Fold this protein.
Amino acid sequence: MKKRTKQVLSVVILFVLIVGGLLYWGFSSREETSNEIKQTEDINDSDLLTVDSTIDEVIHHPAFGDFGEQLLPRPDDDTSLNFNQIDQLMPYHNHVSPEDSLESVNRMIDDAKDGQDIFYRFYSEDEIEEDPDKAETGLFYFRGEEGAPCAVISPGGGFSYVGSLHEGFPYAEEISDQGLNAFVINYRTGSEQEATEDLAQAISFIQENRDTLAVSSDNYSLWGSSAGARMAANIGTDGVSNYGGENIDKPATVVTAYTGHQNYSEEDVPTFAVVSRDDPIASSEVMEERIENLQENDIPADILVYDSVGHGFGLGSGTEAEGWLDEAISFWEEQMDE
């Protein structure tokens, strides 16, 4: 009798433990799902930003999750400024248009509301653990048509900051509006070598994940401004694998804006350049000479030279340089293989 009682008691205890575990699991799952739904609702219900929004409101917008600070030129920038003061965060740049920048940032918010992934990390957790500075890297994605070629854009900033707000996101939005895909890289600052290695890794990541990202593996282009143009030109001359990336084809086109980069090779890629004669940092003569050297080696190359827009003019909105990006896209499309 005692033995049977103990058996019954054991069964009852086991039943209680099982039921309790199931109830706890169900509650935890519902709680996690509830949090995910709430986060989605937060994005869908959130307002778009204005030029009067603070930088703090920008980087903590729910659309930007845990990567909001990567929108900033530097992680430690003054976030109390209003968005219409972003020129103060980018001292090497001119003709900064808060309106152009804001439009591209709000575009990303709209994409996030539509359930699209707008940011990708291209280093693994192990690589980041080995080098914590790599945690500051990533790719912002502006989608064009599915399966279309892609541009990878490296903003400038003298390798001391990354000016994506001025010459990254606005470029990407313009490119994607024409049906092409565009990525903007956030790279490690302080070293041209490391920054170019980040670009090589980003290109490799895009190629390896081209099906998931819905981009073509062919005819990609590299765009860079100032310091970013050095990165793009390095890859165009030396290739992706020479900077630690995979052994993949060079880009179909490199677009370089206002840079003093001089190196080239007889195996270089088609190049489009833009600069101003009054640029105090990047010599227009140096850029013109490089383009001439490429042309002499039968490499398609072209350059636009303006008179008075200085250095770091971005899209050049409201200046004589406005519209140069459309010409650069046309040049890229001319280099695409059928």
Remarks:
- Confidence is low (pLDDT under 50) at residues 1-40.
- The CA atoms of residues 180 and 215 lie 9 Å apart.
- Strands lie at 119-120, 138-142, 150-154, 181-186, 221-225, 253-257, 271-276, 301-306.
- The first strand starts at residue 119 and ends at 120.
